[in-house]
Structure formats: C-alpha cells, structure tokens
C-alpha cells in the first residue's frame, strides 16, 4: 500500500501516514519544494484521502553550498513545500534539517481518518476501467533537458526533437510533478473507485503490477494507451529505450493516480477531472485524466499490450494544447506561477 | 516544544508527532539502530506520552559501502531500531530508504492522544525541583573512544583517564543513549510533573533555556549539580573545555529527560526511577534520576551556578557501580544485551 493504516485506540479511527524524501531533480528550488510536497501527499491521495492533518518537512542542506547559495536556495525550497501543503489544506508544523553532502527534500504526511474517508486499494473487479491522471515521461523530460548542454547526448536525440520542444516538455513535467493529486482523490469517492495507486519510481507498469497483486479478486490489468508528454516517446526510442518508457518502467516523480473505476463511471471521472482542472486555474492545473486500460479476469498481474497507443500530451500553454482545449487564452495557473 | 501537537477533527483528540534523523556515532550497527529509535521516541516521552501508535523509519545506505558491508550492517541497524520500537510498545510500519554518501538513520513517531495523555511543557512554578534522568557526557565519551587510536589526541587526555576507563565510558554512553525514556514519561504523570524536555543537541543548558523560555510563569531554572559519566568531566577539562561539558552546552544524543517536579514529589520520582530501573533488568536499564536544580522566580532563563557539583556516574556493571548499588551481581539487562 502507498500508506500505512494504523487502527487507533480511539473510536474506530485510523492513523494513515506516509513519508518520502529524495534529491532535487529540477533546477528551480521553489518548484522543487512544491514537487517534494506533492509527492509526499500523493500517497494519501492514492487512498482517496483528501485531507491531511499534519506535515513534517525533512531537509538536508548540502555542505558543498556556500552561504550565499544556501540562503538563496533553501528558503525558496521550503516556501514551495509550504505553499503546496497549504494548497492541500494542511500545514507543516515540524521536521528536521541536517547537513549532508547532497541536498535532501521530503516529508511526512499524516491524517486521522474515519473508515469512510479512505478507499482500500483492493476492490478491482473484471470490467473495471483504468484511468491515469497525469501523463508519463517526467524522467525523460528532466534528463533530456540536462542533455541540452551535453553535445554527445544531444546529438542522439536532436533528429527527433527541437531544443524548444525539450524546454516545453521540461516545463510541462515540472508543472505536472508539482500538481497535487487532490482533485483526483476527491473524485475517487464521487465515482466509486475500486482501487488506486500513484505512479512513481517503479513506473506505470511497476505500480500497476503492485496494485494488481493486492486485489481481492483474481484480476489482471491490461494497459492499451500511454498518455505521454509530447515527444518524450520519440526521445526514449531515439536513445535505444534507455528509459523503457513505452515498456512502462520509466521512473516517474510525483506521477498521477492510476485509478480502477467501474466502467460506467470512468468517462464521467475523466470529464469532471477536466472541468475541475479548468476551474482551479487553467488547463491541467488539477492534472488530466486518460482511460488507459481495462481490468480482466487474471492472475493479479499487469501488462501493456503490444503496440500500445501513444497519446501525445501537449505541454500546457503550447499552441497544440490551446487548440486541443478549444480555448484561445487559457488563464494562467495561480497555483503554479 | 519537542513535538508538534495537532488538534484533530475528531472528538477532542490530538495528533502528536516528531521526527529526527542523523548519522551514526557508535560502531555497533545494532546499538546504533536502538539509539536512533530511542532518540525519536524521546520527544514523545518528554511530553509525558508513554504510547506511540506508529513509527516510520528513515534510512539511507551509503554509496561508499560495498555489498558485503551493506548486507552485514543495514539489517542489524534496522533490527536495533525495530527492537527498541517494540520495547516502546510500538512498531515500524513504513518508511523510506535512499542511497546517500553518508549513512542516515532516523524516524518518525506519531500518536493520537486524549488531552490527559500528554503534559504541556509550560507549567513550572517557583519552588519546583529539576530532575535529570540520564547522565551527561555522551559526546565526550564517543569522541574519547575515537581518540584511543589517535596518538596526538590521546596524549592530551591520557594523564586523566585510562584506556579501560574510556572503553567503559563509551559502553555506558552507548547503553544510556539506547535506553528509552519511557519509564520517566510514565512517572511524570504519577508525580505530577509540571514540564519536561529531553536533552539532545543543545546540551543540558541549551534545552533548559528553551524549556524555561516557554513557561507560563516568570521562572528561572538554576542548575546546581551535573551528573556526568565518570571521568568525562576530567577529559573535557583536559582538552581545554573543547566540549563545554561543565558549561552545559556539550551536545548529547538521546539524552535524558529534564523534568520539573513539585518539590515534594522529586525524591519519590527519583527513587521510583531507581526501583523500576532495577525491575526491568538491572541497574540503569530505565535510566537513572538525579536532582540537579531548582526553579526560582526569574526571567525565563536557565543557568548553571559557579562551580556546580559534579556527580561522577560510574558505568553500569563496573565495580564502582556495583558497590554504589549494594548489589554484588546485578542482573544483566535483557533489553540491551
């Protein structure tokens, strides 16, 4: 499970909590703080929990930073983390900071819940539909962005992508990773989700496999479609499947929720994700939603079909996205700008 | 405060939680795990909380370790952490592990409490007595032990201490740091403690100052006695007060509780600490207890008097300790052996 669920001594309540920490992967410290917070909260959201009672922040300052860099970078990272926590309706009231060779950022999210507040991730039934709420390809985008300054690497992918496209994809990945999965968590209740997980280090297929393995019923998850940040599939292919993106095992950071929904609810879930996303501040600000597969009878494993359909997801704010959205001038996101 | 206390949406309950992580400071990985766990739980115990609903473990494996060392060291450290958690009546159900240049070990402790389960650390009144439940000097002992192999350093202290005494002090420090403050937390309720904190990185005086600053009444803490692991005061003096041990600012790891007790309760608190300590497995296994000072009217600060009395605390199991205890053969501690 994405969280631990501890039955408490008090009136049927449970303590649900999770922790996560890692190393910076984007250059903007403020956005990095937001991403770290979104990533921690995501484990609660994957259980359909929309509230968080408290967060702790885990930080390390790099011993290799000089005072000036430290004073410039760390407050921004902390502010990003706090702002994302506030957007999640919670706050950071404690934590620990140490000195370390590398910068570390992460946290702990805890909530005390009644049983109806969370959805145990084990109720998938044959006939369910699988929905994913953020596009894949964050790792590829972050790496490709670093390769802009590495001639040898860049030469491998420059035939399939422009510098501008890489920059747009990197921006899209950064915004996507900083997006809370909270809207999706709320809609899991409204549309009676049967199970969910969030997609992170093991990639879509890894987490789909974990989720399938936990199901009470003998089911299998079959994935037909892969929504991917535009051009990232081409990059992954151009460097000899270095990331295994199409194979489903490219790591994601603060990825979307993979949700099992009753067949008749899936389309409504997706359309409401879209409309809420526009409502909270422009295209994509609450994540997206794509139907990516189905639940069949099976041996509690997940697989991607041969030649899955790649859904190229245009960066928000790009011309393609605007056309796609039938909106000439989407409002900028107040949460992410 | 040592923990954050979050009022919950449910029936007067509060979520109390704390996190701490640091780098190994003793050579024995199993004991290091125990110390890390005792150190995390100590923040709950400082608030008089004796139960913990859940722990998460935070770990990093050093990238500089080879596979063999990793497989030998990390399981022992994890086991030590788990065993100490079990001794605290709780368990570890989650966490996060990363790769890092340095080893990190720590955790998160969380509990959902009714208001009568914790003691807010702000009720000291003039006339109260200050009690400390572990001897000081852990940092000095750990450093002196490293100096056994550093001729230049060793030469500075060899006139005041023998190699054997350093080894005994190191053992004592290790056992002391691995000792849970849980017994003391329970006795805080029985003897109506007015406030408490645990002594860690800022040393006795640093934490006494923090505690004094939080008091509702205008009080000052005056410290007369310093219980110190035997010979550590002499070592600190011999190296030119490098550690500021007598000045009260030598860092401690997983130190004792500093407790403000009503004058008429302090002696009973100390004697019960002693008898419970013997009961749970031999001398010192639940910590000790020393009256170290008094609470006066004042400006919410703490100070140590000129020429405080140094109480030399003999290592448990040493001849001096046995005589002191009137026990020819104290039972070995089942928890710490």
TrEMBL record, chains A, B:
Region (Disordered): 306-337
Entry-linked Pfam families: AIRS, AIRS_C
GO CC annotation: cytoplasm
Domain PurM-like N-terminal per the UniProt entry, residue ranges: 2-105
Uppermost EC category: transferase
GO biological-process terms attached to the record: selenocysteine biosynthetic process
Compositional bias segments (type: Low complexity): 318-337
Molecular function via GO: ATP binding; selenide, water dikinase activity
Keywords: ATP-binding, Kinase, Nucleotide-binding, Selenium, Transferase
Reported function: Synthesizes selenophosphate from selenide and ATP.
Ranges of residues in domain PurM-like C-terminal: 126-300
E.C. no: 2.7.9.3
Protein name: selenide, water dikinase
Alphabetized Gene3D superfamilies for the sequence: PurM-like C-terminal domain, PurM-like, N-terminal domain
Domain of life: Eukaryota
Chemical reaction(s) catalysed: hydrogenselenide + ATP + H2O = selenophosphate + AMP + phosphate + 2 H(+)
């Amino acid at each position: 499970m994405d969280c631990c669920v501890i039955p408490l001594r008090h009136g049927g309540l449970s303590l649900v909590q999770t922790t996560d920490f890692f190393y910076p992967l984007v250059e903007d410290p403020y956005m990095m703080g937001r991403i770290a917070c979104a990533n921690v909260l995501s484990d609660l959201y994957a259980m359909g929990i929309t509230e968080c009672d408290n967060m702790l922040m885990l930080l390390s300052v790099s011993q290799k930073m000089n005072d000036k860099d430290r004073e410039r970078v760390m407050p921004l990272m902390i502010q990003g983390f706090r702002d994302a926590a506030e957007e999640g309706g919670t706050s950071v009231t404690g934590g620990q900071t140490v000195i370390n060779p590398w910068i570390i950022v992460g946290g702990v999210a805890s909530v005390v819940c009644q049983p109806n507040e969370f959805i145990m991730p084990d109720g998938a039934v044959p006939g369910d539909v699988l929905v994913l709420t953020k596009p894949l390809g964050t790792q590829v985008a972050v790496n490709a962005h670093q390769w802009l300054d590495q001639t040898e690497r860049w030469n491998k992918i420059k035939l399939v992508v422009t510098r501008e496209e890489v920059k747009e994809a990197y921006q899209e990945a950064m915004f996507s990773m900083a997006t809370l999965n909270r809207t999706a968590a709320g809609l899991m209740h409204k549309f009676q989700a049967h199970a969910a997980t969030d997609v992170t280090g093991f990639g879509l297929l890894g987490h789909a496999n974990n989720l399938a393995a936990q199901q009470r019923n003998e089911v299998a998850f079959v994935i037909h479609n892969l929504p991917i940040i535009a051009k990232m599939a081409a990059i992954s292919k151009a460097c000899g499947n270095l990331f295994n993106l199409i194979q489903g095992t490219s790591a994601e950071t603060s990825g979307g929720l993979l949700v099992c929904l009753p067949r008749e609810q899936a389309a409504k879930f997706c359309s409401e994700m879209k409309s809420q996303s526009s409502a909270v501040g422009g295209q994509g600000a609450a994540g997206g939603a794509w139907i990516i597969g189905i639940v069949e009878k099976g041996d509690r494993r997940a697989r991607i079909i041969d030649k899955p359909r790649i859904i190229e997801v245009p960066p928000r704010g790009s011309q393609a996205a605007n056309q796609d959205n039938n909106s000439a001038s989407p409002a900028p996101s107040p949460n992410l700008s």
